[in-house]
Structures are given as structure tokens and as C-alpha cells.
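#struct-queue
[09:14] JT: dropping the first one here, sequence first, then the C-alpha cells:
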Amino acid sequence: MLKVLHIVPSWIGGIRVNGGLTGQHKRCTLLWSPIRTIHTRTKPRISPPPKIRPSQTDQSKGVTPFGWGLLLIPATTFGLGCWQVYRKQWKEDLIRELERKIHMDPVPIPENLSELNAMEYETVKVRGEFLHDQELHLGPRACIVHGDSHTTGGLFSQREASIGFLVITPFKLEGRDDKILVNRGWVPKRLLDPATRPEGQVKGTVELEGVVRVQENRPQFTPQQRGAIFMYRDVDKMASLCGTEPYYIDAKASSTVPMGPVGGQTRVTLRNEHLSYIVTWFSLSGFTTWLWFRQVVRGKSF
């Protein structure tokens, strides 16, 4: 309810009477003056009481079992990050071990060939003769070039280096009845037929150094081997086709001859991307933990 209060300034004049108080003709003159009107409230405005924020303990008591179940997401990502830390250490130890083996001094091939199963990536010396009539091929593969490809035998151009095959040839050990498989090296596709590179088919007794390799598991989605061209290093099947022992070595680059396969095709590098996986999993764990606290514990939404 509003009331109107009229305030008359003190400077406003009153009533002037002509003729005095006792005259017969009295004339009253009312002086005009402006009037200001002020609106006032009879009841003051009452401000609302401040909001009382519940304590942290009261909020946590309101978390539902489903909310606690969502905590499994940051916990799982944190566990995956810890597992990647372990994998990174394991991969680094493996790389160091491979580097140690690949730089070891070459040793003669053991009398008992079964010892080669525990010597992968170690270098052995062999002496004997190639059986070129039983040559196999593995590929397609890109060439691993050590140095200038043109001075390594003048076999191929840089453009051809991306498409080629590995030449796998049985090798009869000197003074023994044992035969093993030797990866002589890489040739471009146009020289896959041995008849196109007769100068590179070494005859007679040779001595070379090679890196021991073992059976390779068939990669996923890789078709089964057919014919004399293999898609992966299937040592057992190669040996059964050629009638050799199931042992395989990669000839080193020093075995390369003019117009022959390019040796030194052993790939010893291993992918080590575990650091990026560690950063990814721990980042997801931290983000989902913050999101869980905001959404479930504090009840805030975006």
C-alpha cells in the first residue's frame, strides 16, 4: 500500500488579507507554489536468506552405487597406464639385448644345429656351397640399403627399391651332410628369375657370415603360402620343400656380389611407442577422475 505525502516548501507564502483583519471587504490571495510528490514504501524489501552449501561429507554420502561404479573408468585407465610403463621397460631391455647380440663377434656354426634356436640375432660363420636349383623367394619386401645402392653391386635403381623379393637358397655345409637355408638378400622384381642374373649365382665353395633367425608366426590376414613365393618367414615349410634342416640365417652385407642379391636384409629395429601410450592412458585417467568428481560428487553438469 502506497501513501502520498505532500511537502510544501518553507518559502511558500501564506494568505494575504487586504484591508486588515477588520475590514469589510476582505480579499484573500492564495499564492501558488509547486508541490513535490514522493512515493515511499510502507514495508521494506526483505532479501532472501543465503544458500547453505552442504559439506563435502554430506555430498559424498549422496553418491549412488551407480556413481561409485563409474569410478571404474579412471581406475581402469590408470591400470593400463601402469601396464604400459612395464611394457616400455620390457621393450627397452629387449632392444638393448638385440643390439648386444647383433654386434657380437661371429662364431662358427655349432655342430649341433639345435643350438641355433637359442642364438637368434647372433652372427655365425658358415662355409659350403649354394644349391641354386632349389631357390625360393620371400616377399614382396622393400630393400634395406647399407650405403649407396649403386655401389653395392649396381643391381637396381632407387625407384625399384620399394618392390622386390628376398632370395632364399639352400646351403650345404662343408664336410657335413647338413643343409640349412640362407637368405642371400634382396633383388628387384624384374630380376626375380635366376636366369636374369646368372653372374650373381655364386658357384663353388664360399664362406660367409649370417644372422640367425627363427620361425616367424603367420601375420594376421596373411594368406596361406602357395608355390615357391612365401609371404612370411615360414622356416619349417621352406625346409620341407627343399629337404634341409629347419634353420635359417640372413647373409650379411659383406656377402653381396655384383649382379647378385643385396645382403644385410636383417631388420633389428623394434617399434617402441609405449611412451605415447603412457601419456594417453594417464591423461584419460586424470580427466575421467575430474569428470567423475564434478558430475557425481558435486552434482554439477555442463
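[09:21] JT: and here's the second one, same format:
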Amino acid sequence: MEVATATEASAPAASGGAARQNHPFPWLNAAISEPYYFLHLLAFFSYFAARSAALSADDGGELHDRLLRREIQAVLVFLVLFVVKIVKEETWETFLADSLLYAKGLLLAVTLIIDYWLTLGYFLGFVVIYAVAQQPPYDGLGHSSHLTPLQLESLLTEEPTSRFWLVEFRTSFSATCIQASSVLPELSNIYSNKNISFGIIDLGHFPNAAAKFGISMWDHLPTYILFDKATEVARFPEVTSESKVFVPKVTKKLLCQHFDLDRRLIEYLST
């Protein structure tokens, strides 16, 4: 059965996520096992070697004072941005991406005190990291399932086990999709019931499905579509002229309001 296949397909990812969550130091495990974090960690720690080499070659001691002042300023700025982001951001993936961006910018500003060529080297190094490594998406599924387009079609038409399906269409190469990758699984933990189910389709694996659902592969990803059986009843972002100019950041609150999930849950519980 297609439903069984979808469940089985999601099992490895779910078990992998559970294994990482059960690790005594999950952040350390991710920093070592994920190339994206590991390469950034190497780049940041290499600064201490570059700093020591520069100070050992400084005879007058002027570099030490200027560098120390710039480092203190950079740390204070980073701490302020860190606190602001940790309060405002809803997903851990977005928080990490923004924090790394700020840290890289401040590192480049500090290295300008040492040597312009060192700054250029770090800049090129970060470009290489961006090219060869990718921030890992959220690996939990909650009560959602990874689906293929055929499985979704079967669930909507041949086996309508749920009246509503909220489906996220995303790609693994989109930074926006990666930073929003925990939103749907977390919503599924709250709102999943016999009346509404949640699914995820990776358009990177099924690019032909994008045109079928009216989705552009190059902008407005991720796209969320709510199906009532086989009929689309709502989507985010909506296909309008305004949505092509500005798309608000995906959050649990935004999707909950857009698809009226609270009302649908209340209606289900009251029946």
C-alpha cells in the first residue's frame, strides 16, 4: 500500500533524528558530524593560530592593543545580536544560520586589523564552505510523513483516510526551506488528528511535480498547500502579484493563522 510505503520511507529519518536527540551532547555531535558546522568550526578556530602568528611578528606591540579593542567590540556586538536573535527567531535552524552570518562578518572585520590578505583568505574560505557544504535541515518528522507525488495523489483520491492534508513542498538546496524545515513537523505534533494529516514533498527529487501543483522551483519555496480531499483550498504563499514582491517569513503562528488550524482542530474535537 502507498500509505505503508510513505511511513516506511519516513522511518529512517525519524530514527536518525531520535538518535541525534538521544546523544548526550547533541550540539557537539552535530558540530563534528555535519560538514557545514565542522568546517565553520575549523575556520573560526584557525583565527587563534593566525592571531598568534601576527602578534609574534609584531615588534612594537601596537597591533596587540588595536586588535584587542577590535576583538572586544566584535564580541560585544555579537552578544547583542545573539540575544536579539534568540528572542525573535522561532526556529533553531534560522537562529544558527543568522548567528554564523554575524560571526563571519565580525571575523572579517577583526582580521582587517591584522592583514587585508588574511581577510581575503577568510572570505574565500567561507565562499568555499558555502559551495561544498550545506546547512542540514531539521531531521525530525513529528507526525508528518515524507511523500512522493504519487503517494500524495493516492492519499487524496484513492485512500482518503484524512479529509485534509497540509503538504509542504520544499527543496534541500534552498536555505529558506532548510531554515523553515522544523515548522511543519512541529505543527503536526500539535494539530495532527484523524481529520488532518501532514506531509512533505522534496521537489528536488521530483522536479516535474512543481508544475503540476503550480509551484516555482526558484522562488516562493517552501510552498504549503492545504487539500480538502483532492481539492486545493488554500496555499502559502498565495499566487498573487503582491506575493511575488514580498513573502513573510514562515513561522508556526503564520501557518496556523493562514490555514485556520485552530478552528479545524476545535471542529474535530467537537464532533
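[09:30] RK: nice, looked through the second one.
[09:31] RK: Residues 96 and 179 are 9 Å apart (CA to CA).
[09:31] JT: good to know. Residues 1-21 have pLDDT under 50 and may be disordered.
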